[in-house]
Amino acid sequence: MKIIHVAFACLLAIAGITVFILLSEPPAGVTGIAHETAAGMKLGGDGAARLEPIGRAPFYFQIGVICFAASLLYMGVAERRRDTALKLSVLVMTGIALFVWYMLYSGYEAYLATGETDVVFGFPVPTNWMFWGIWGSFAVFDLFYVVMFRRYFLPYEDEEAFASLVAELKAEEERA
Amino acid sequence: MEEYRQGVILTCVALYMVMCIGVGLWAMRRTKSAGDFFVAGRGLGPIVVSLAVFSSTLSGFGFVGGPGLVYATGLSSIWMAVCSALGYATGFYLVSKRIRMIAEVRDTMSLPDVVYARYGSNAARLLTAGTILMGVLGYLATQILAMALVLQSILSASAMFADISLLACVVLSSAVLIFYCVTGGIIASVYTDLVQGIVMIISGALVVITAASVFDGGFAEVSNILLQNDGEDIMPFGTLGTMASLSWFFLFGLGLAGQPHVATKMMMNRKLSDNRIIMPMTVLGYVVAAMLWISVGVVMRALVLGDVALPLGAPDEAAPVFLSTYAHPLLAGIVFAGLFAAIMSTADGFLNIGAAAIIHDIPKAIRGRSLERELFWARTATVGLSVLSAFIALGSDKLVGLLGAFGWGMFAAALVPVVLIGLNWKQASARAAIVAITASLIVNLYMQLAGVSVPYGISGGFLAMLTSLLLFIGLSLAEKPKPLPKDIDRIMDL
């Protein structure tokens, strides 16, 4: 199975979940309730009631998105350089992103069930998972790009191969 | 210093405008060809490129619309910002190397040029250029209108300009933008982006510190007020709910590298290896600047819900009211200059790619060659495009809203499959590219023109992008692979 097939399968899963959600009857105030006095402001209301018709669909939706994003990023490395170490690294980085998502979503579900949450570093715990976790889990891919740049993204031999391609094309142009 | 507040703000904004004009004059002497005008001769250093990439991404929306959205709907819109690490990862993993290589080998000046080099299809080139032109007109009109409204709010607070009209503000702010874009082309654009990026980072960092000190208990007190009054707003999905937030994450995270004004800048660096430095600088610059978006929005919401301040007239007033009430006058001046920087840095990028579409891409797709005297026509098209956008901005609020609202979604849906996947997958076909772009335009236009309200707040742009991605990959898989031109084939092996 090629990586494009994985990406396509993820997209189909995302599309399937989206169709399921679109076909579910949305409860009243699903995108918030207008504030009585503040113009343009919305309140969230009962978060658990808003999720009732679609259950955990958003959780599975985002798993599909994370896997699709990871397969796309994997495609960014030239095919002949996709070794076992790269595969393992992408799997670990994807695992981190999935773990962060699980912590965020389960924390949010716990808040919906109990109405209580701890405030850490100025924000509720699930919100911290969003600010730092979601951003940070993909920043790991950014860090990987910087650290592994010469191994996977622009090895010296690829740089030389490109320079010789440019030289060849210039020579052809001059001959013509 | 409080009594000089208005004077300080005006001085900061005026100094910033003068700087833009100065850069335009300096860049004019370095702009000798259409290649210099559109892609800076592919000779820019890593610091300039990284600041240009991030400042183009974060437009006036991030500095005005962003805090307004947080004030109105809690943290839902923050998914557009926390996806930036993914957005830049896709840009640098999938686009930056190949687009720069193709630019050098084929001497390309624009994204439609790259699309033509990859697919060998003039129809794909024309559709890409048409998409860019449509999106640019909408985006530019909204940026010009935003710029004029901010200028009007600053000037009308002073006795001398109390009655200044919106038209005068459109003329004044557009004149500065047009001047440096026409004289210096992309060279002026990226060097103003450099300064604009620095101003935005400083603004972002200083505003967070200010916002944290509005309440004695800092952001923890802000969170407690919001948790007591609603709760959902300060939780990860805000008041709009899970699917609205997650569809934005998809659209903005995976769609960032499909934005033509961002992707085009990836063609301009001097050396391929500079990408290793450009990527982290871009990511960090964006994060610091985007902190303004979050901090101002939540603090203003807590002030209103906690009965400390009166409700705002409109959500977009969140940033201006915060600055005029809680920020030190000098900081307010810097941030207002930063606001103009954010708007102009995006607008100049759009002017550049829009002019390229008119004088280079569309003629090339139709008659096989671009216009004679490209540099002259590039400058003329830049003026024409600005004037047209200014008229659209002044003439029809509805049209501006319509075009501006789906600009990002239209770019992402049309260009992500064709560029991000197409540059990394040899089997991707020209027919699939044409179908994907066309389908994305149809879905996006239908959603906007018919005023379709998608259940659960799911973004229409997300649906268009999902459709185009599925069609692009599905059709390409169904087709027999065709051989690529030798140079493109070799580039895709690297």
Notes on the protein architecture:
The complex is a heterodimer of chains A (176) and B (494). Chain A is 70% helix and 5% strand. Chain A has helices at 3-23, 47-51, 57-75, 84-114, 125-147, 149-153, 156-175, and strands at residues 33-34, 42-43, 119-120, 123-124. Chain A is mainly alpha-helical. In chain A, α1 (3-23) packs antiparallel against α3, α3 (57-75) runs antiparallel to α4 and α4 packs antiparallel against α5. Chain A has one domain. In chain A, the strands form 2 sheets. Chain A has a two-stranded antiparallel ribbon. In chain A, strands 3-4 form a two-stranded antiparallel ribbon. The mean pLDDT of chain A is 95. Chain B has 494 residues and is mainly α. Chain B has a single domain, classed as Sodium/glucose cotransporter. Chain B is 76% helix and 0% strand. Chain B is built from 21 helices and no strands. Chain B has helices spanning 5-28, 34-39, 46-57, 60-73, 79-82, 84-106, 111-119, 122-155, 166-212, 218-229, 242-255, 260-263, 275-305, 318-326, 329-367, 374-395, 397-405, 407-421, 430-449, 460-478, 486-493. In chain B, α6 runs antiparallel to α13 (275-305) and α6 runs antiparallel to α21. Chain B is globular and about 65 Å long. The model of chain B has no long low-confidence stretch (mean pLDDT 88). Chains A and B meet through α1, β2, α2, α3 and α4 of A and α4, α6, α10, α11 and α13 of B.
Q: What is the annotated CATH architecture of chain B? A: Up-down Bundle
Radius of gyration of chain A: 23 Å
Strand content of chain A: under 5%
Query: Level of helix content of chain B?
Result: over 70%
Largest interface: A-B, 80 and 91 residues
Order of helices and strands of chain B: HHHHHHHHHHHHHHHHHHHHH
CATH superfamily of chain B: Sodium/glucose cotransporter
Would you state the CATH class of chain B? Mainly Alpha
Shape of chain A: elongated
Number of beta strands of chain A: 4
Q: Main beta sheet of chain A, described? A: 2 strands, antiparallel
